[in-house]
Amino acid sequence: MAREVIEQKLDSLHRCLQRIEAKFPADVNTLATDYDLQDIISLNLSRAVQLSVDIGAHLIASLSVPPPGTMGETFDLLAQEQILDKELATKLKKSVGFRNIAVHSYESINWEIVHNIVKYHLSEFSEFAKATMIWLENKNNSFK
């Protein structure tokens, strides 16, 4: 059952990333002035972070380790358990900061930073999805 949930969440993550890529403007000024694009990008980026944390929590629940105390610690534990490499875990942990700003302080979002996140760091979510799938395949029948 948990594997099915993880696979569904991975599909949702993929859709979020596709939506961001489809609507991402090449120019930061376009993002800074287009409220519809801001909503699409920030909502889907926030969802991508949340989905990654949720997937990580499901993976951690299958291990003999204490649960993370924070969303960011989810990625630390995944690196500790060698599901993610430490560099990717650190990058994903930083994404939680964006999610918190987007959810709690939307009006203070710096759209230039968001533009750079999408331009230079969106692929980290795909790397996370790949690492998750590799882990699931290695666990094969023992994780259901």
What distance separates the N and C termini?
5 Å
Taking Cα atoms only, what radius of gyration do you get, to the nearest Å? 16 Å
CATH topology value: Four Helix Bundle (Hemerythrin (Met), subunit A)
Number of domains: 1
Structure, described:
This protein is an all-alpha fold and 144 residues long. The protein has one domain (2-142): bsu32300-like (Four Helix Bundle (Hemerythrin (Met), subunit A), Up-down Bundle). Helices cover 78% and strands 0% of the residues. The protein has seven helices and no strands. The chain has helices spanning 2-23, 28-33, 35-61, 71-80, 86-104, 111-121, 123-139. Helix 3 packs across helix 5 (86-104), helix 3 (35-61) runs parallel beside helix 7 and helix 4 (71-80) packs antiparallel against helix 5 (86-104). The longest helix is centred in the middle third of the chain and has 27 residues, at 35-61. It is elongated. It starts with a helix and ends in a 5-residue tail after the last helix. The model has no long low-confidence stretch (mean pLDDT 92).
What structural keywords apply?
Four Helix Bundle (Hemerythrin (Met), subunit A), mainly alpha
List the helices and strands and how they pair.
Layout: H1 2-23, H2 28-33, H3 35-61, H4 71-80, H5 86-104, H6 111-121, H7 123-139
Can you describe this structure in just a few lines?
This protein is mainly α. It has helices spanning 2-23, 28-33, 35-61, 71-80, 86-104, 111-121, 123-139. It contains seven helices and no strands.
